[in-house]
Design goal:
Number of domains of chain B: 2
Strand order of the largest sheet of chain B: 1-2-4-3-5-6
Number of helices of chain A: 9
Strand content of chain A: under 5%
Structural class of chain B: alpha/beta
Structural class of chain A: mainly alpha
Shape of chain B: globular
Largest sheet of chain B: 6 strands, mixed
CATH superfamily of chain A: DhaL domain
Helix content of chain A: 55-70%
Oligomer: heterodimer
Number of helices of chain B: 8
Largest interface: A-B, 28 and 31 residues
CATH topology of chain A: Serine Threonine Protein Phosphatase 5, Tetratricopeptide repeat
CATH architecture of the largest domain in chain B: 3-Layer(aba) Sandwich
CATH class of the largest domain in chain B: Alpha Beta
Radius of gyration of chain A: 16 Å
Number of domains of chain A: 1
CATH class of chain A: Mainly Alpha
Strand content of chain B: 15-25%
Helix content of chain B: 25-40%
CATH topology of the largest domain in chain B: Rossmann fold
Number of strands of chain B: 14
Distance between the termini of chain B: 37 Å
Bound molecules: adenosine-5'-triphosphate, magnesium ion
Radius of gyration of chain B: 19 Å
Shape of chain A: globular
CATH architecture of chain A: Alpha Horseshoe
CATH superfamily of the largest domain in chain B: Dihydroxyacetone kinase, domain 1
């Protein structure tokens, strides 16, 4: 598997489609355990990201990721803006200078993104945040063999696990035990992002 | 939703323009941003103070811009933290060479966006320090979770750190006194009605006609107890006792009885009377009292009680001159 500039652009386009389609759903997830803005924030940020990356001819995936990160940082807001912004910025740095990404370098990029989210959010796996999705995904990639179906399986089960977790970080933490049984909105948006990545990978299978 | 607005997606823009129009000599807008700064910013040689957060808490934070308080405020969308690029513009606008100090309320989004902005500014050679305000005793204090929220007590941080900076203090000293205020201030709020974010169109939660929620946050985050509405004396007792339980108060304090947006001053004064009685019973002297709207939550009905433990240094800084429209001293 090799992903080039156009594949990474495609990743953001597909992510955007899913986020736009599920904007109200993401917002409804954020209402009981957050402040009901996640879908609105993500839809705004991803639309602007796609608008931006469609106007530029990129030489390498790193440059796409960097532009996407900067747009997300300045347009999403809330907690998820700096988190996704940091994630893609770290990923961009990790794959700098590579014209195509193979499994090893893509894995390195995703691991750097995860480390960025953890550092920015001062959080770890199991706190009912998007890390509950990114963590298992990076573990899966690290095993050295991937498939689009396998990736979907991993993210689906990670989302289920996270649902039954109690939130200790972010706005949902104020709800303590009451957050158990609710889907975390940031984990749901990360789910769409990896569902989109799985579709990009599927094209290569 | 019934509001005096033009378009739910334009409230921030319209509000900022109106705010500048109300204070043309004192305030300026940094072009292409929602950053409002002192008209004379940057003040050379003085530590610049920046605060901000989601909008909907007016007069916080832009109303606290002035000599002796903030140098700039970053206005986010309603109840949404401003983005790092906006905060970074504010930092640049107020940097007079002595460094910039950030006052951040403890919300995940605010902390991350302000920290990223600080990193950008430091990369440009601007010295940045910060304090994170977490005065809401309704939330458990824990280093393993997000921790306590920042609410009305933040205004005392603006005032006292602002006065310190105005005296010509170093960035380090401004930080030290801001941390001292955070260590000495506690608040707790309650609500009778929810509020509606214009872009959302519906109230963020529901409270029945005869219900109230104790310990609610300024964005409607859950409190600690929902029950039948009580009398002002009972409410004042609940809030004040909880604040007093949280830390030892003695000697002299400042009191802030804050309205959340739709509570008449009359009711705030009724609350204030009981707060004073409770403090008097405990032998705690009230040095200064502030009653009014300082940190609101759109049109939420309700109030919060804040106590600040004072000493000579804090008293002097609290009394110092301020030209901020919402906190003239
Ligand atoms: N400390 C954290 N570490 C990692 N992820 C986090 C953290 N805090 C929140 N999140 C993720 O961000 C999501 C919420 O994003 P959202 O944009 O709604 O931010 P928010 O908390 O509502 O911020 P704001 O109140 O400023 O709008 C959560 O569902 C969670 O997955
Ligand atoms: Mg939210």
């Amino acid at each position: 598997m090799e992903l080039g500039v156009l594949d990474i652009v495609k990743w953001f386009e597909l992510s955007n489609e899913k986020i736009q389609q599920n904007k109200d759903y993401l917002t409804s997830l954020d209402r009981p355990i957050g402040d009901g803005d996640h879908g609105i924030n993500m839809a705004r940020g991803y639309q602007e990201t796609v608008n931006k990356i469609n106007t530029v001819d990129y030489a390498e995936p790193s440059a796409v990721l960097k532009d996407a990160a900067m747009v997300l940082l300045s347009k999403v807001g809330g907690a998820s803006g700096p988190l996704y912004g940091t994630a893609f910025l770290k990923m961009s740095v990790a794959v700098k200078g590579m014209v195509v990404l193979n499994l090893r370098t893509l894995t390195g990029g995703l691991a750097a993104a995860l480390a960025g989210i953890k550092q920015r959010g001062k959080s770890e796996l199991g706190e009912k945040t998007m890390i509950d999705i990114w963590g298992p995904v990076v573990d899966y990639f690290t095993k050295g063999e991937i498939s689009s179906a396998g990736l979907m399986e991993i993210v689906s089960s990670a989302l289920e696990t996270s649902k039954e977790t109690m939130a200790t970080k972010g706005r949902a933490a104020y709800f303590k035990e009451k957050s158990i049984g609710h889907l975390d909105p940031g984990s749901a948006s990360s789910f769409y992002i990896f569902e989109a990545l799985a579709e990009v990978i599927k094209e290569k299978e | 939703m019934k509001k005096i607005i033009n378009n739910p997606n334009q409230v921030l823009q319209d509000m900022v323009d109106g705010l500048i129009a109300a204070n043309p000599q004192r305030l300026k807008k940094i072009p292409e941003t929602f950053v409002i700064a002192r008209a004379d910013a940057p003040v050379q040689g003085k530590v610049g103070l920046v605060s901000g957060g989601g909008s909907g808490h007016e007069p916080a934070h832009a109303g606290y811009i002035g000599k002796g308080m903030l140098d700039a405020a970053v206005c986010g969308e309603v109840f949404t933290s401003p983005t790092p690029d906006q905060v970074y513009e504010a930092i640049k606008a107020v940097d007079g060479g002595a460094g910039v100090f950030l006052v951040i309320k403890n919300y995940t989004g605010d902390v991350m966006n302000f920290e990223m902005a600080a990193e950008l500014a430091e990369a440009e050679g601007i010295q940045v320090e910060k304090v994170i305000v977490n005065d809401d005793v309704a939330v458990e204090d824990s280093s393993f979770t997000t921790g306590r929220r920042g609410i009305a007590g933040t205004v005392f941080v603006h005032k006292i750190a602002g006065a310190m900076a105005d005296k010509g203090a170093s960035l380090e000293d401004v930080k030290a006194v801001a941390e001292k205020v955070v260590a000495n201030v506690r608040s707790m709020g309650m609500a009778l009605t929810p509020c509606t974010v214009p872009a959302a169109g519906n109230p963020s939660f529901e409270l029945a006609e005869d219900e109230m929620e104790i310990g609610i946050g300024i964005h409607g985050e859950p409190g600690i107890d929902r029950g039948t509405i009580a009398t002002a004396d009972e409410i004042a007792t609940t809030l004040t006792e909880k604040v007093l339980e949280d830390r030892e108060f003695s000697g002299e304090v400042a009191v802030l009885v804050n309205g959340l947006g739709a509570t008449p001053e009359m009711e705030l004064y009724i609350m204030n009377k009981k707060v004073h009685d409770i403090l008097a019973d405990r032998g705690i002297n009230v040095y200064k009292t502030f009653v009014g709207e300082y940190m609101t939550s759109l049109e939420m009905a309700g109030c919060s009680v804040t106590l600040l433990q004072l000493d000579d240094e804090l008293k002097e800084l609290l009394d110092a001159e301020s030209t901020a429209p919402a906190f003239r001293m």
